Structure formats: C-alpha cells, structure tokens
Amino acid sequence: MAKTDYKDLLQAGVHFGHLKRKWHPRMAPYIFMEKNGIHIIDLNKTVVKLEEAANAVQQIAKSGKKVLFVATKKQAKEAMETRVSAINMPYVTERWPGGMLTNFATIRKAVRKMSSIDNMMKDGTFDVLSKRERLQITRQRAKLERDLGSIADLNRLPSALFVVDIKKEHIAVAEAKKLNIPTFAIVDTNSDPTQVDFPIPANDDAAKSIDKILEVITESIKVGLEERKGEKEKNKAAVEKAKAAKEEAAPAQEKKEEKKEEATK
Predict the structure, then answer these.
(1) How many domains does one find in the chain?
(2) What domain range includes position 224?
(3) Is residue 228, in this structure, part of any structural domain at all?
(4) What's the longest Cα–Cα distance across the chain?
(5) Which residues on neighbouring strands pair with residue 160, listed in sequence order?
(6) Which of 28, 185, 219, 246 has an alpha carbon 20 to 30 Å from 195's alpha carbon atom?
(7) 97-117: b or e for each residue (b if 16 or more CB lie within 10 Å)?
(8) Is residue 84 domain-shared with residue 185, that is, in the same domain?
(9) Sheet with 160-164: strands ordered across
(10) pLDDT of 161 strictly over 60
(11) pTM for the predicted model, two decimal places
C-alpha cells in the first residue's frame, strides 16, 4: 500500500477545513483546533482513516472489481483524470447522470448508443447521411462522450464508490447507499462523515490536498491490481507445471501397463 505521513499531508494543505460557522458537529472527532475562525483537521486522524480506506480499496482491486471515482468540482477534475485513468478505473468528472447506479440499465443503453454511432462511423453508414444528420449525430456523440466517456467500459455496477466532496455529490452517495455499494470519500469539516463507509477527513477544496489523497488511494489500487496479476501468473505456472508433470508421467504409466499385460499372457 502507498504510504503517506503527517508532513506530506501538511505540505499539501490537507489540514485546512472550513469556517467554524460552517462546520458539521459529527466532524468534531476529526477537528484538532480552530485558528482564525477556521477549523484545522487532525492529520493524525487523517493518516489512520486514509490507511483504512487504502487497505480496503487495495483488496477490492485485488479481487478484480471496479471502483468508480466521482468528482465534478473544478479543483478535482485534473487530478482525477490523471490519477484514475492511469489505473484504468472508471470516473465521472462532468455532471453526475442521475440514476447512474439505481437505473444502471438506462445508462447502459446510452453507452450502447454511443457504440452504435462509433460503428456507423467505421462501416461507412455515417458518410451517406446528409450534412444536417451528420452534424446532429456528431453533437449527440460529443454529449455522450462528455457524460459517459470514462464509464463506457463499465459493464456492471461498481463494487465501490470514491467521492470528492460528499455535499456536492450527495446524489451519487445516496444511490450507492441505496444499493449497498461501499462508499469512500474525502470529507471536509462541513460534511457528515457518517454518510459514507470510509470517510477520510481532509480538505476537499484545494487541488493539492485532493491530489495527495487520490495519489495514495490510486497507488493502493495499483498495488492490488499487481497482486492480482501476480497471483494469476502464479496459478497459471502451477497449472502448466502440473500438466507437464502429467504428460511426463504418461509414457512411464503406459510402459507399466504393457509389462502388466505381458505378465498375464
């Protein structure tokens, strides 16, 4: 698992919370102090909760399941797209399509529509359409790409949801809870940490803070994927070894049976 420490979090500004008047009382256990009217997050608590979350997502990745990342706020988009695309996990950085989880079949229809447009462009059907029809389809394809781009390969519901800012992405969190999908989230001092299964107390507004948390989480997923790959290769080698041993033993077994037949004659 990717490790981080107090100094890394401090340098990234993870400890800066919101104004005291905006706080949520359930964040009290994670608040270290108040300074100039701003709540300061206890980074020791952040390290503990971050490690818990990182260990959990590592096991999910190791089991071959998908984690869906959600962050539609401007400060998080670049880090999300860079970090998450590197580990080949689905993510949403534009508008959250309502019902994406609870009405997943409809979302899959939209993905299939996007695929059918791609096929039209490949097989030449697109070229025989009128200029107006081509323009309409191109715009439709662009909209689908914007809304569904990175989840186009998501063939089934994700096994977990990772969210930046649970207040902004409350619809996504509610859908995941309704379907009993485990939720991980960066939770700032103005949010209710009990709304998610694995809250990570941290600044969810600063790009550096978000990037630091995502770095740890995505590196843990990467480790999980590598462990899964290693186990697959190990199992494949064991099967091939057993197969080779069986083939090697076959001639000896045949000779043994021939000798047995001759002795009975």
Answers:
(1) 2
(2) 1-97+159-247
(3) yes
(4) 102
(5) 67
(6) 219
(7) beebbeebeebbebbeebeeb
(8) yes
(9) 91-92, 67-70, 160-164, 183-187, 198-201
(10) yes
(11) 0.85
Do 151 and 90 form a contact (C-beta atoms < 8 A)? yes
At 1, is the secondary structure helix, strand, or coil? Answer: coil
pLDDT digits 0-9 by tens, 77-131? 999 999 999 999 999 998 898 889 999 988 888 888 888 888 888 888 888 889 8
212: its two tokens: 């630091």
Q: Which of 83, 97, 104, 235 is nearest to 158 (CA)?
A: 104
Cβ atoms of 164 and 70 closer than 8 Å: yes
Report the chain's C-alpha Rg in angstroms: 26
**Would 44 be classed as within a structural domain?**
yes
Residues 82, 173, 188, 190, CA torsion sign: positive
111, 127, 156 - which closes a domain: 156
- Domain shared by 114 and 163, yes or no: no
| Displacement of CA 72 from its chain's centroid (Å) | 15
Nearest Cα residue to 67 out of 181, 147, 164, 180? 181
Residue 217: which residues within 8 A CB-CB, separation 6 or more? 50, 53, 54, 57, 162, 184
CATH at 144: 1.10.287
Lookup: tokens for 109: 């229809």
Q: How far apart are CA 160 and CA 138, in angstroms?
A: 33
Q: Which residue has the tokens 């919370």?
A: 17
The angle at the Cα of 194, spanning 209 to 19, to the nearest 5 degrees, equals 50
What the block records as the tokens of 220 is: 């843990």
Q: Distance between CA 196 and CA 203 in Å, rounded? A: 16
Q: What CA–CA distance (Å, rounded) separates 199 from 16?
A: 16
Say how many Å lie between the first and final Cα of the chain, rounded: 67
What is d(CA 82, CA 213) in angstroms, rounded to the nearest whole number?
13
Q: Are residues 3 and 91 in the same domain?
A: yes
